[in-house]
Amino acid sequence: MKLKINFLESLDTRRVKYGGYAAVLTLAAIVGLVLLNLIFQQFAPQFDLTQNKLFSLSDQSLQVLDKLEAPVTVYGLWEPGKESRQIKEVLDRYAARSRNFRLDIVDPDRNPGLVAKYDKTGRGIEKGSLIVEGAKGVRVIRTADMYDINYLNPQNPQITGFSVEKRITDALLYVGSGSTPVIYEITGHKETSLIDLMMKETVERENYELKQLNLMQSDIPGDASALVINSPKSDYDPAETKKILGYLEKGGRLLAAVDFRTGLARNLNDMLSSYGLKFDFGLVVEMNKNFNTGNPFHVIPSFGSHAITAPLQERNTPAILQLAQGISILDMKRRTIETEPLLASSRDSFLRIDLTSNSPSLLETDKPGPIMVGVAVKEQPENAPHLETRIVAFSCGELLAPLSPFGQVPGNIDIFMNSITWLEDRPETLAVRSKNLLTLPMNINGWSIVIYALLFVGVIPLALFGAGLATWLKRRHL
User: Fold this and answer.
1) Strands 350-352 and 137-141, how do they pair?
2) Could you tell me which residues come within 8 angstroms of residue 285 by beta carbon, excluding any fewer than 6 positions away?
3) What is the C-alpha end-to-end distance of the chain, expressed in Å?
4) Cα–Cα nearest to 315, from 164, 434, 420, 421
5) pLDDT (tens digit per residue) in 191-211
6) Residue 270: in which H helix or E strand, if any?
């Protein structure tokens, strides 16, 4: 009897009580985890934890899917069991969003007739490609088109971007409308051709047709949806600028990338002054190391608040402008003209006017920063509200030129294509860009290094040690 009483009394001690509580809590935690696991298996939620959200659809793609009224079928040309997991994951997101989007995996070896039906060029459609068929057209997306590839080193090309979402959303818009806007790049002044910059396929993949135009030989065609001036090496003739100005006055669209190698560009500036802009001859020197690549002539500009730059800000994708001059917004302009800065250098930069000087410090002739290097212009005349003129100007003719060791900078390509899309007033695809796989070095100043060192080497370890010590002392007296 005494033994029984002692046993019952032992159950009433603090140690046994706390031990019992711990056992009950542990059991409850295990039961909770089992229930959560069953719930998660039932609803199968998925989370995209990749750095650049490779498998998540943008809001613009979701809007396009929500407006998809006619059925669209995507044929994936894969052998059974050899589907691309990354590409199929993105396609499954499309199919889950819209009942009008259907994915059909087809073995090209067993269905040669289907492949031949969509092979309009006669060159064949390789395995791994996608065929998007809608009510008003068909778009073939080849395997190489689903990635951005840097060919700066032909012996070792580098994949810099994952562009499946961009290609699919553009294809959905095309097969739903069947129309292709025509972009004309102006030639005749030793311009750097978009074809030579490997941009023709990029432009055409996004549902534009690219053609060349010499204004000294012909007028601007009626099907021109936009004009591109890319890095001319001499000023334009007054007859050419007169044609461009007449086109703009009728609601035309223009993208101009011009740097100091064009010279003072008086005729171009006279034309742009009609819309409140002027190129400032010189060379931007960026002295703030957080806003250059280590080379003061390679500017990493800050972004203005605009639809063109918003997608790059959201993804923290930098642009790099090499050998840029400046742009000024004129005080005297029509009240119907709206100008918005896109890109600018830092306050520590300056515009070097005298290019014969090698002085690293600010001269009296220099213009202190920040210097605007990108501007967007929009005008809707009061007497013709249905006509809207749009202009995007960059003071960097090397915007799309390769920059060692990165090749073509993904952010620069995004800015160029975003500008074309904004000029065309196609907001549904403006933010759908390739997912950047290129990692640029992070620039932090000395104070940031000290703060991060104290935080991760001192504060966090001490906080964990203190929490552990407090818990040990508390349990020691149980």
Assistant:
1) unpaired
2) 296, 297, 349, 350, 351, 352
3) 29
4) 434
5) 989 988 989 888 887 778 899
6) helix 266-273
Q: For residue 350, which amino acid is it? A: F
CA distance 367 to 285: 10
466-471 long-range contacts (CB < 8 A, ≥24 apart) are none
Q: Which residue has the tokens 């601007």?
A: 220
Per-residue pLDDT of 89-108, as tens digits, reads 888 988 988 899 999 999 98
The number of C-alpha atoms within 13 Å of 395 and in the hemisphere containing its C-beta is 36
Q: In what order do the strands lie in the sheet with 158-162?
A: 147-150, 158-162, 435-436
Give pLDDT tens digits for 388-408: 999 999 999 999 998 876 678
DSSP state of 52: T
The answer to whether residues 76 and 95 touch, using CB atoms and an 8 Å cutoff, is no
CA-to-CA dists, residue 225 to 105, 185, 209, angstroms: 37, 11, 10
User: How many beta carbons lie within 10 A of that of residue 211, not counting itself?
Assistant: 11
Does 64 score more than 90 pLDDT? no
**Helix spans in 365-459 (H):** 410-423, 446-453
354-394 pLDDT, tens per residue?
998 888 888 999 999 899 999 999 998 877 778 899 999 99
> Which stretch of DSSP H or E encloses residue 465?
helix 460-476
The CATH number corresponding to 181-423 among 3.40.50.2000, 3.40.630.30, 3.40.50.880, 3.30.70.20 equals: 3.40.50.880
Alpha helices in 44-184 (DSSP H): 59-66, 85-97, 112-118, 164-177
Cα-only R_g, the chain: 30
Residue 261 structure tokens: 């190698």
Characterise 81 by phi-psi region: left (phi > 0), alpha (psi -120 to 50), beta (else). Answer: left
The answer to whether the CB of 316 falls within 8 A of the CB of 417 is no
SS3 59: helix
Instruction: List the chain domain ranges.
Output: 181-423
Three-state DSSP at 249 gives: helix
